[in-house]
Amino acid sequence: MALPKIQxxxxxxxxxxxxxxxxVKKELFxxxxxLATRQPVQPHMFxxxxxxxxxxxxxxxxxxxxxxxxxxx
Length: 73
What we know:
This protein is mainly alpha-helical and about 70 residues long.
């Protein structure tokens, strides 16, 4: 399974971006819970989820900065 591409995150609307961020955070929580309770978990899924979360949050922040810049002009 390849890491997600940032183009996918760029194509999401603001509402979809927010829901996706929440979903990935829940996914990471579930992975940590499985790890703590000694349930089987695939370690590479942590990396994929963290990478996807970082991409989503980067897109969100860049949109915030862009909105601020257009509002100040």
